[in-house]
Amino acid sequence: MKRKLVIFGAGDIADVAWFYFSRFSEYEPVAFTVDAAYLKDSTFRGLPVVPFEEISTSHAPESNQMFVALSYAGLNGVRKGKYEAAKRRGYRMASYVSPHATVLNEGRIGDNCLILEDNTIQPFVEIGNNVTLWSGNHIGHHSVIRDHAFLASHIVVSGGVEIGEQCFIGVNATLRDHIRIGPKCVIGAGALLLGDAEAEGVYMGQATERSRVPSTRLKKI
Q1: 43-44 and 47-51 strand pairing
Q2: Do 8 and 49 reside in the same domain of the chain?
Q3: Domain boundary residue among 57, 88, 119?
Q4: Cβ–Cβ contacts within 10 Å for residue 151, how many?
Q5: What is the CATH number of the domain that holds 176?
Q6: Statement to judge: residues 83 and 101 lie in one domain
Q7: pLDDT digit string (tens) for 28-39?
Q8: What is the C-alpha separation between 52 and 65, in angstroms, rounded?
Q9: Is the whole-model pTM more than 0.90?
Q10: How confident is the model at residue 43 (pLDDT cuts 50, 70, 90)?
Q11: pLDDT at 159 over 90
Q12: Which pLDDT score, from 0 to 100, does residue 14 have?
C-alpha cells in the first residue's frame, strides 16, 4: 500500500512534484496545502487544496507525510521556512529520488529532497535536507550539498566540492574540484568557478551578445 502524501504548494513545482510522486514513487498524493492567504482554488489536479492552518486536522501527520514543493524564492528561505513549519507540526518529510537517476552514494540523501531524472550522484556524496536537484546534473565524488540548496539543470559539480546552505546554482554552471561555496551564494547560469566563494556571493556568467550581422545576411544558413 502506498503512503499518503500532502504536497505543500499549488504552483508549477507542486505540479511537477505531483507528477513524479504519482507515477514513480511509493507515495500517493492525497491533498495539496498552501497558506490560507494564498488559497485561490479548492482543488488542484483533482485533489483538495487545504489551508495549511487546517491541514493537521484534515490530514493528520500520524497518517500522512508531506513534501514542500516550492522554488528557490528568497534564496530558498521560503521553502526552508515551510519545511521547518511542517516538521514542527509533526510531519515526516518525503523525498523523491528518480528511478532514472544514477545514485551511488549509498542513500546519503536527506528528507524533502527532489532529485529528478538523469542526475549522476557519485560515491561518497552527501546531500542534506530540503535540497532540489533538477534534471541532468553531475555531482562528483566526495562532494557535500548542505541543506536547502537548489541546483538547476546540467550543472557540473566536480569532486570534493562543498555547497553551503541555501545556495542557488544556475543551469550549466561548472564548479571545479575541491572548492567551497559559502552559504547563500548565487551561481548564475553558465558561470565557471575555479576557487572558493564566500558567503552571500553572486557569480554571474557572461551572456552572449547579439552579432552585428543579421541572420538574413548569413550565407551558409
Answers
A1: antiparallel
A2: yes
A3: 88
A4: 26
A5: 2.160.10.10
A6: no
A7: 999 999 999 999
A8: 14
A9: yes
A10: very high
A11: yes
A12: 98
